[in-house]
């Protein structure tokens, strides 16, 4: 019934994420962690969810999915409102820092539009992943680590119950696809450099997940 939708879940505590992988040996610790299992499970579950499906197929679009698309539309609008500035350097347009400052300031409010009121305490934690998903404002670059942060952002929303199992196709086809469009616009508008490019050894300078989920679609 409706009482289920408004009832707060078992008490959860939230914390501001901080960087824990600083040296190579920390990677082994990360790979043994529950967070790693949850994150990889999320990626692979979505991989199964879109298996053999086309971007144009029909799927359920829930209210949280619509709200996430609206959030991404806001980021897109801010790009239009923050044109590139004239500068001697061809790459890394400094107007990106102005755009990012707006997101840094508004991120928690944006996240609060997606999550229900009884989960408001989660907003500061979840917002960090959103801010980490759009590129680095110091270096004015973007790479697969930023894309991974957006997947972590979506994973967090699943963990707290905002997104559900039947949202799988919409997460990839509607939300993630819109995210890619906005990121491409950021990269082109502000001439962002690739972060941590692997050159010819990498599938792409900027994205990785479309190759995973896209290959599943082709099965």
TrEMBL record:
It is an enzyme of class 5 (isomerase). CDD domains: PTPA (cd04087). It catalyses: [protein]-peptidylproline (omega=180) = [protein]-peptidylproline (omega=0). Pfam families: PTPA. InterPro entries: Phstyr_phstse_ac, PTPA_sf. Keywords: Cytoplasm, Isomerase, Rotamase. GO terms for cellular component: cytoplasm; nucleus; protein phosphatase type 2A complex. PPIases accelerate the folding of proteins. It catalyzes the cis-trans isomerization of proline imidic peptide bonds in oligopeptides. Belongs to the PTPA-type PPIase family. This is Serine/threonine-protein phosphatase 2A activator. It comes from Ceuthmochares aereus. The gene is Ptpa.
């Amino acid at each position: 019934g409706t009482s289920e939708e408004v009832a707060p879940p078992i008490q959860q505590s939230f914390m501001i994420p901080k960087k824990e992988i600083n040296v190579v040996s920390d990677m082994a610790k990360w790979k043994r962690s529950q967070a790693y299992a949850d994150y990889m499970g999320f990626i692979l579950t979505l991989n199964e969810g879109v298996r053999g499906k086309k971007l144009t197929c029909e799927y359920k679009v829930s209210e949280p999915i619509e709200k996430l698309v609206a959030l991404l539309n806001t980021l897109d609008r801010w790009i239009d409102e923050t044109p590139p500035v004239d500068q001697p350097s061809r790459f890394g347009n400094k107007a990106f820092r102005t755009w990012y400052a707006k997101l840094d300031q508004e991120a928690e409010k944006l996240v609060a539009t997606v999550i229900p009121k009884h989960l408001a305490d989660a907003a500061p934690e979840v917002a960090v992943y959103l801010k980490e998903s759009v590129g680095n404002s110091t270096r004015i670059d973007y790479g697969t680590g930023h894309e991974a942060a957006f997947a972590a952002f979506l994973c967090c929303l699943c963990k707290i119950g905002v997104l559900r199992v039947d949202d799988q196709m919409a997460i990839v086809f509607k939300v993630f696809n819109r995210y890619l469009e906005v990121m491409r616009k950021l990269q082109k508008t502000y001439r962002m450099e690739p972060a941590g490019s692997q050159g010819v050894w990498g599938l792409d300078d900027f994205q990785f997940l479309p190759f995973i989920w896209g290959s599943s679609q082709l099965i």
